[in-house]
């Protein structure tokens, strides 16, 4: 299902080839294996504001545990590079260990808000104090390092702290002058970032460095010996003692065996660092490594976190938004500590990551539902303990399996609880009931099972306290795993724009430009599904850089169609009896990353809408929403909601749509509404688009006129919002002047029985497959569209392509398509619709003219141009022919 894109395959192969070359760069017998970048509990003051607000260290890992892990992973020398201090190194030296003293200093540019980390080795306690004084001015800091011959490494050179500002590539020009050694293999970063780092360092010729030094007024000789010769290092960047030593640096020491007899390895290592005799080795950090790191960190937070104190947080520097978020996290952690089962799970998982098998009590206390989860945890512990080389592969599959187990339990229990509700099932409620009933009270005691108050009698009748009792553990466990996976992707791709810019500058390593188009509906009998099926055919024919993804239990995937199997489902009869399928969140992340997507389009607001925003923030990619449906109009037509309740939905939709980087609208009215005061979306983010009809639609079906009575046709969903209750009036008015008129009604829907009772003389046809629609259109004289709801009106375009003129109300989608009195009519009332129909049916010469104009109008909707401009609007620039999508020859000027 996930596979690997050409982009990821090429990047992986290129970087693995580099690592293979690096492994043979020095004679094996003359190399030291050192992890130059790892941390323990003395990294106790994090750079991140939230960590300082919550008084959370970066890790609780004890120094002896880190040392044991490094030794188990066959490192020859120990260093601990904690943030802004070398306390662990001094403690180990006091105990008699031969230690390469090191620390990771957070340094600042004096002329910008940019902060970076710098790894420094071989300093004394006095020099440590001076370095902490100088680190607020990076230039003075680097000058001091050069003066005292202290080797420094710039770790993760493409990842730094920008305080929400986006730096330009000029920052790399300064790095090229200031530093000699670069960490080109960071164990917590992915292949793409590590590959680009290595390629950038390889591109630094002496000529470039000289040009950069002149440009920025920096003399490279002030910062490094032999500044034009760069060296490459690696480090695990491990904070939890799980991966320490699996990634590191090979330090070349000529005649190592003899020299180590009378010289400490730490001194030999310093000489190798100063000389630049280094190469990286080890594992590349993909999302599974960071996911495990965040999972383990969360487990430790839940176990160790103390109340940070409300007053202290309020007085701490930082925005109110940050303080509120940290206050919520603090409360959530304090409540979590009350749930012993969840704490036991987290502790057991933490122990497993460090190779400790679950205790007997943990085994005895696990219910049958969670036995598969315990089995996975045991396998992780056994692999870490006995087969560490396979650990990465095991967690790569084990974490998604673990999430699948606990989320599966969550959804099964949720369905069981909902099935036991004495009241009407949620899925059976009308839209009106759902909106009116589902509300949350402001009093938490009421929310969790207290007596109802006078103000909440219409609020949700779920006993949330009882419901949460059965769902707390699986909900928390699945949320923690999903949150860790989200955080991992977010960290790896947080600087995506910078990486893309650098790849463009280097002329290699550019990320593939591919769109993942998400939808909740693809096989359902509705207009959205029909439009997306037509879109898929165009994507397949022209091989556009788009894949459509949906979730369905039986639908088979095909070219450009990704199908995920659901972990749960539910049906909403109030939304057209559609079944919604929920995909596995971690699998969706894998699909997105491994197939090389870098932008999103979403067609449905419900499940996939939320998942689109999840992916947007996880991978730092642009996301666009394709608006097929006007939900406010739908609710106005199908419910009895009060204006205040409709307005509440409008505000919810506004909040939702504003999260997207662009909105595709199918008509000019909708575009104006979106950019107006009701929705407040910047007009630059709104792009007009259109549907089209397949080229072969109706071409082989002959027009039938002779031997039949004049015929009106309606095609669509038989529901009140589609205006079908206007059809009886229109039909009877026409029949008064054209007695032999026929009305054919095609489709299904909730208003069918009512319409049949009111208009029994019409000819009713059930849902017709798309391929057979031309037969209906070619046997009719006029299509009626009494809907004021359609955002586009595919049936209008279908009819026009079959030379069938259309009468529709002068609103939204149809008015942008129909050229009034040329290929159809735009009317205001049912009476006017009937009048226009009569005039048209009585004039055979007019019919011929308008049929020809109808076909000509449909021909202006070219799939290639519509799709090209849609793709360009997402930022794939080589598809563009104009900077914006305005459909100049597709819209009828009103």
Helical element count?
Answer: 36
**What is the C-level CATH assignment of the largest domain?**
Alpha Beta
What is CATH's topology name of the largest domain? Answer: TIM Barrel
Low-pLDDT ranges = 423-427, 440-465, 879-894
Could you say how many structural domains there are in total?
Answer: 4
Percent strand: 5-15%
Rg (C-alpha, Å): 33 Å
Q: What is the CATH superfamily of the largest domain? A: Metal-dependent hydrolases
Helical coverage, percent range: 40-55%
Shape: elongated
Instruction: Give the terminus-to-terminus CA distance.
Output: 48 Å
CATH architectural type of the largest domain: Alpha-Beta Barrel
Largest sheet: 7 strands, parallel
Number of strands: 23
- Which structural class matches the secondary elements? alpha/beta
What's the arrangement of strands in the largest beta sheet?
Answer: 11-10-9-14-15-16-17
Kindly state the mean pLDDT as a whole number? 87
Protein name: Glycosyltransferase
Pfam families: Glyco_transf_4 (PF13439), Glycos_transf_1 (PF00534)
GO molecular function: glycosyltransferase activity
Organism: Neptunomonas marina
């Amino acid at each position: 299902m996930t596979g690997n894109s050409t982009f990821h395959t090429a990047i992986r192969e290129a970087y693995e080839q580099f690592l293979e070359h690096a492994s043979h760069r020095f004679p094996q017998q003359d190399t030291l294996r050192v992890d130059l970048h790892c941390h323990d509990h003395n990294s106790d003051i994090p750079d991140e504001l939230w960590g300082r607000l919550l008084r959370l260290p970066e890790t609780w890992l004890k120094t002896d545990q880190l040392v044991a892990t490094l030794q188990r992973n066959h490192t020859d020398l120990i260093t601990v590079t904690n943030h802004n201090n070398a306390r662990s190194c001094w403690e180990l030296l006091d105990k008699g260990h031969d230690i390469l003293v090191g620390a990771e200093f957070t340094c600042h540019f004096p002329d910008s808000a940019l902060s970076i980390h710098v790894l420094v080795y071989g300093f004394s306690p006095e020099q440590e104090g001076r370095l902490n004084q100088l680190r607020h001015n990076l230039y003075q800091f680097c000058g001091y390092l050069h003066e005292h011959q202290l080797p420094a490494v710039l770790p993760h050179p493409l990842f730094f702290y920008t305080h929400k500002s986006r730096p330009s590539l000029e920052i790399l020009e300064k790095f090229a002058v200031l530093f000699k050694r670069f960490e080109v293999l960071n164990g917590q970063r992915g292949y793409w970032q590590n590959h680009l780092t290595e390629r950038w360092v390889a591109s630094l010729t002496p000529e470039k460095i000289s040009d950069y030094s002149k440009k920025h007024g920096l003399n490279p000789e002030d910062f490094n010996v032999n500044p034009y010769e760069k060296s490459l290092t690696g480090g695990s960047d491990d904070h939890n003692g799980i991966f320490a030593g699996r990634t590191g640096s090979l330090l070349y020491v000529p005649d190592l065996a003899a020299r180590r007899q009378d010289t400490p390895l730490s001194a030999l290592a310093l000489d190798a660092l100063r000389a630049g005799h280094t190469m990286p080795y080890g594992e590349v950090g993909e999302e599974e490594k960071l996911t495990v790191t965040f999972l383990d960190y969360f487990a430790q937070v839940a176990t160790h976190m103390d109340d940070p104190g409300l007053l202290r947080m309020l007085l701490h520097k930082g925005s109110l938004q940050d303080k509120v978020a940290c206050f919520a996290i603090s409360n959530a952690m304090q409540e979590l500590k009350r749930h012993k089962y969840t704490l036991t799970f987290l502790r057991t998982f933490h122990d497993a990551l460090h190779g400790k098998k679950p205790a007997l009590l943990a085994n005895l206390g696990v219910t049958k539902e969670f036995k598969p989860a315990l089995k996975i945890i045991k396998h992780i512990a056994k692999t870490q303990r006995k087969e560490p080389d396979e650990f990465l592969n095991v967690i790569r599959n084990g974490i998604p399996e673990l999430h699948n187990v606990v989320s599966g339990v969550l959804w099964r229990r949720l369905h069981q609880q909902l099935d036991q509700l004495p009241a009407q099932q949620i899925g059976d409620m009308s839209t009106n009931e759902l909106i009116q009933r589902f509300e949350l009270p402001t009093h938490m005691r009421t929310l969790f099972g207290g007596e109802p108050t006078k103000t909440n009698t219409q609020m949700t009748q779920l006993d949330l306290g009882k419901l949460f009792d059965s769902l707390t553990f699986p909900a928390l466990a699945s949320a923690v795993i999903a949150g860790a996976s989200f955080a991992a992707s977010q960290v790896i791709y947080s600087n995506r724009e910078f990486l893309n810019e650098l790849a463009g500058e280097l002329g290699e390593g550019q990320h593939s430009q591919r769109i993942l188009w998400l939808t909740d509906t693809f096989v359902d009998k509705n207009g959205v599904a029909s439009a997306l099926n037509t879109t898929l055919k165009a994507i397949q024919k022209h091989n556009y850089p788009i894949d459509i993804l949906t979730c369905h239990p039986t639908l088979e995937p095909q070219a450009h169609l990704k199908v995920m199997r659901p972990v749960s489902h539910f049906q909403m009869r109030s939304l057209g009896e559609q079944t919604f399928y929920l995909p596995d969140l971690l699998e969706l992340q894998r699909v997105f990353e491994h197939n090389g997507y870098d932008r999103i389009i979403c067609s449905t607001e419900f499940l996939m809408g939320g998942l689109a925003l999840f992916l947007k923030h996880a991978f730092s990619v642009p996301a666009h929403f394709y608006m097929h449906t006007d939900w406010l109009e739908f609710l106005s037509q199908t419910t009895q909601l009060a204006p205040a309740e409709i307005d509440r939905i409008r505000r919810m939709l506004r909040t939702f749509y504003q999260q997207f980087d662009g909105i595709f609208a199918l008509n000019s009215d909708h575009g104006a509404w979106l950019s107006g005061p009701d929705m407040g979306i910047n007009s630059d983010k709104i792009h007009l688009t259109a549907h089209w009809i397949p080229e072969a639609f109706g071409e082989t079906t002959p027009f039938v006129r002779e031997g039949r009575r004049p015929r009106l046709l309606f095609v669509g969903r038989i529901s009140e919002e589609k205006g079908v209750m206007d059809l009886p009036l229109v039909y009877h008015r026409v029949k008064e002047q054209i007695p032999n008129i026929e009305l054919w009604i095609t489709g299904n829907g909730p208003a069918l029985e009512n319409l049949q009772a009111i208009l029994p003389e019409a000819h009713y046809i059930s849902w017709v497959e798309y391929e057979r629609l031309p037969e209906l259109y070619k046997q009719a004289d006029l299509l009626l569209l009494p809907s004021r709801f359609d955002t586009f009106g595919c049936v209008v375009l279908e009819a026009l392509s079959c030379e069938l003129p259309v009468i529709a109300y002068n609103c939204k989608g149809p008015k942008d398509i129909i050229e009034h009195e040329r290929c159809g009519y735009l009317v205001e009332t049912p009476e006017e619709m009937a009048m226009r129909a009569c005039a048209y049916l009585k004039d055979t010469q007019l019919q011929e003219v308008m049929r020809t104009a109808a076909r000509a109008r449909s021909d202006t909707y070219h799939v290639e141009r519509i799709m090209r401009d849609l793709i360009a609007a997402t930022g794939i620039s080589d598809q563009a022919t104009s900077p914006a999508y305005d459909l100049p020859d597709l819209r009828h000027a009103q």
